Amino acid sequence: MAEARFYGYGRENGEVGVRNHVAVLAVDGLCNAAVDGIARLIRGTVPVTHPYGRLQFGADLDLTFRTLIGIGSNPNVAAALVVGFEPVWTGIVSEGIAKAGKPVESVVLHGHGILKAVEEGARKARRLVLDASELRRKPFNPSKLRVSIKCGASDTTSGIASNPSLGVAVDHLIDLGATVLFGESTELAGAEHIIARRAVNDDVRREFLEVVRGYVDFAVSKGVDILGSQPTQENIAGGLTTIEEKALGNIQKTGTKPILGVLKPAQQPTGPRGLYFMNTSSSAQEAVTLFAAAGAQLHIFSTGQGNPVGNPVEPVIKVTGNPKTASTMAEHIDVDVSGILTETLSLREAGDLVFREVLKAASGKLTSAEVLHHAEFAPTRLYESM
Questions:
Q1: Residue 98, domain extent
Q2: Residue 259 lies in a domain
Q3: Which pLDDT tens digit goes with each residue over 309-321?
Q4: Which of the listed residues 86, 112, 132 is the one where a domain comes to its end?
């Protein structure tokens, strides 16, 4: 396969970024206008806004904090500016990011108003951007990569071409010492017993099965048949008529390596490098947000019928095995492996294409989602607000 190195930004904590963003983070929805105002003024900043925060509590609030802190701590973020409404929650997020060794500043709206907050934030962001702009890329081994994977808008070509190609690349990345995260808990239903066989021990196997089966039990307890949501309507139109069919294609992208652990949403793995399962929604923007918060520098997204999702800090690489999608939605696709269907491309060759695109994107090549300004950020909610 391709030469096994990439060019990234070394961080003080030993991690390596594939981008060099200065993130401007909203603690809650009241701060979105200020975040956007700062980002419009200061070139080189990435705004991260969302509608949540206020009147959340318990595990739901903890997840929001973990997500925001994780995004600000992502290796692709050189520095962060935290914009909050009041000082307590603003301090929780900014101090959490600082623990990762990041330069971090904060601005509070309450008692000052948005105009003063934008002025103060812009001045602080300007300095952070100037400092970040001095950093230069250096060569690193793929063992420094943490990659997340997901599929979306799947069809029959997903399980035949794009997902197996991704699985080959996943195995190669892990062989080189990288860490790979996968999730989509509801989309594994019907094939969870196959994935469970790859758990590194009984505890991991039990925990994995509890997560996946818990979603199905929850739906049943509400009197809901998940057909129509899983598979989605476009999945059904693409030939995936049952959740079992979708799951059997889905698991192809995970490769063949052992599953080392089960992670909570937005939780970073702390064990040895390798393959980890994270409990995530199957919603693309939510899942990628959780993976980015767990420190993934790159996301590989296989799609049958095309899905434009991106992320503010984690570049998303799109892979398709559907020749129609590769033609009609070409601006969204980074790797076309439809040659598998026409027998002009072997599975090994397709996996190599995906792997080489990972190294290119890690070294600075923009993904299609980045070029098209797709930067979806969607924190996962657990409870209703108070």
A1: 21-132
A2: yes
A3: 999 999 999 999 9
A4: 132
Residues 104 and 49 grouped into a single domain: yes
The whole-number pLDDT of residue 235 equals: 59
- Say if residue 168 is in the same domain as residue 107: no
Rounded (5°) CA angle 213-196-294: 80
For the chain, percent of residues with pLDDT exceeding 70: 94
How confident is the model at residue 238, as a pLDDT? Answer: 59
For residues 348-373, average pLDDT:
98
High-pLDDT (> 90) share of the chain, %: 84
User: Which H, E and C letters describe the chain, residue by residue?
Assistant: CCCCCEEEEECCCCCEECCCEEEEEECCHHHHHHHHHHHHHCCCEEEECCCCCCCCCHHHHHHHHHHHHHHHHCCCEEEEEEEECCHHHHHHHHHHHHCCCCCEEEEECCCCCHHHHHHHHHHHHHHHHHHHCCCCCEEECHHHCEEEEEEECCCHHHHHHHHHHHHHHHHHHHHCCCEEEECCHHHHCCCHHHHHCCECCHHHHHHHHHHHHHHHHHHHHCCCCCCECCCEHHHHHCCCCCHHHHHHHHHHHHCCCCEEEEECCCCCCCCCCCEEEECCCCCHHHHHHHHHHCCCCEEEEEECCCCCCCCCCCCEEEEECCHHHHHHCHHHCCEECHHHCCCCCCHHHHHHHHHHHHHHHHCCCCCHHHHCCCCCCCCCCCCCCC
Residue 161 and residue 77 share a domain:
no
Give the residue from 104, 132, 160 where a domain finishes. Answer: 132
Shared-domain flag, residues 289 and 158: yes
Is the pLDDT assigned to residue 2 strictly greater than 60? no
Q: Are 268 and 132 in contact (CB under 8 A)?
A: no
Please compute the mean of the pLDDT values over residues 58-76 and round it to a whole number. 97
The total of structural domains in the chain comes to 2
